[in-house]
Amino acid sequence: MSKVTNKWSIKKLAGHCGARLEGVSLANASLSQLEEMRSALFKYGVIVMPGQNLSPENHISLAEFFGEIDVNRFFTPVPSHPVIAEVRTTPDQAEVIGGTWHTDHSYDEAPAMCSILNAKELPPFGGDTHFASMAAAYKSLTPGLQNMLKRLRAWHSDSSFENSNVGINPKKTAFRDPTLHPVIIKHPNTGVPCVYVNGDFTTNFENWSFEESAPLLSYLYAVITKPVFTARVVWEPGMVAIWDNRLVQHYATADYPGHTRLMHRITVAGVPLEGI
After folding, report:
1. pLDDT, tens digit, 9 for 90 and up, residues 160-193
2. Cβ atoms within 10 Å, residue 272
3. Superfamily of domain covering 9-275
4. Active site residue: 20, 88, 102, 156, which one?
5. β-bridge mates for residue 195, sequence order
6. pTM of the predicted protein model
């Protein structure tokens, strides 16, 4: 359990994204403490706060500080609190939810602002989550490639859920038409440019075929998930992680076969994304 004080202690997790915040109880945080936490989120892309042990009510209140809750239409809800999604891995699952690099809700016209994951039951080993900075990835690209990408938009689709093998059985009514987003977005709060394509939900560039899009998308996926841009979150009991889906992508590690992992997730609604 983290020692509770009246001030956040902030420690970077890695060079380009991630920070560990300790010293404040989220359930009892003041407005100024919550605002400082939000500023850290926009600065580091993902923040982790150990020893919080949030109740469902606390979890919902924390999400509402950021904005309107966006109930995910593909996940199983927590029965007593349906705005909270269960992210559950059972011992017999060979694959896990989120086990590839992706950005939550990029298939929506107004993609998710942030996701808040609350650790409920952890395996005895493994189950870490990796995050990659899309702002740092953009900076690493050559000016020529940056300029070309800033002129492009790409289609995002939820169709990958149709053949999912991670315990999700979506209803046909859950699916929506594909949506277009700029390939390079301007962060709505900070103006920072970020790469906004991901392997799970991006299908092709606007006015490009799938075949024409594949080589450049594959190249981008390889670049933006280079280890140098990443931070690794090792989960602890009661830990809360919040990530900004415009600033980072994430990847859940499937390395705990035969064990259960249960997380509660709330996604906060975002706004339509603009290009640079």
Report:
1. 655 555 555 555 566 678 999 999 999 999 999 9
2. 11
3. Clavaminate synthase-like (3.60.130.10)
4. 102
5. 184
6. 0.92
